[in-house]
Amino acid sequence: xxxxxxxxxxxxxxxxxxxxxxxxxxxxxxxxxxxxxxxxxxxxxxxxxxxxxxxxxxxxxxxxxxxxxxxxxxxxxxxxxxxxxxxxxxxxxxxxxxxxxxxxxxxxxxxxx
Amino acid sequence: xxxxxxxxxxxxxxxxxxxxxxxxxxxxxxxxxxxxxxxxxxxxxxxxxxxxxxxxxxxxxxxxxxxxxxxxxxxxxxxxxxxxxxxxxxxxxxxxxxxxxxxxxxxxxxxxx
Lengths: 113, 113
What we know:
The complex is a heterodimer. Helices cover about 0% and strands about 55% of the residues of chain A. Chain A has strands at about 5, 10-15, 20-25, 30-40, 45-50, 55-60, 60-65, 70-75, 85-95, 100-105, 105-110. In chain A, the strands form two sheets. In chain A, strands 2, 4, 5, 9, 10 and 11 form a six-stranded mixed sheet that branches. A five-stranded antiparallel sheet of chain A has the order 1-3-8-7-6, with no helix packed on it. In chain A, a hairpin with an 8-residue loop joins β9 (about 85-95) and β10 (about 100-105). Chain A is globular and about 45 Å long. The N and C termini of chain A lie far apart (about 40 Å). Chain B is an all-beta fold. Helices cover about 0% and strands about 55% of the residues of chain B. Chain B has strands at about 5, 10-15, 20-25, 30-40, 40-50, 55, 65-70, 75-80, 85-95, 105, 110. In chain B, strands 2, 4, 5, 6, 9, 10 and 11 form a seven-stranded mixed sheet that branches. A four-stranded antiparallel sheet of chain B has the order 1-3-8-7, with no helix packed on it. Chain B is globular and about 40 Å long. The N and C termini of chain B lie far apart (about 35 Å).
């Protein structure tokens, strides 16, 4: 049972445009969400997080939106840069179970020139 | 501040052997979690240690075990290795006193032949 889903395995966006990566979850107990970026043979790099008490969080070019009623979150990258090309993972957790994060299967983003 | 350090980076073992992987968390972080990443299953939570005690455990067989030392360094052990244990093993650290973000090391690539 996949509790966190990223239904788009890949996404290609032109440099300078907006990249939108989507994530859906099924477990209502999740109360915080994170996005990670990963290059091959490296560990995931934390990008941005959001608590379930918020519906938006911004950090520079990265914005995460949370729609609790739809159990959906999205990561917006504006403007997209070639260095953003990587696999992006959505992760969810519950403050009661601390560090146990449930990850989606990832979306490969390619930013083209 | 140094990041999460995992050793070794690469390892090749034979079926039936055992292996120990090491993780040094970010200085001051007391929570260490372990994850397994495989192409088929994605990133899956193994267990978490906090102040030398296992606080959470994922759905892995008893062949997978871990421990944490008083300096927060952690080791993960896999006994009686199987071909399916070939994966990237990732360690993540958190302060443990709150905050959502988990910071990952570069991982240990284990190949079982």
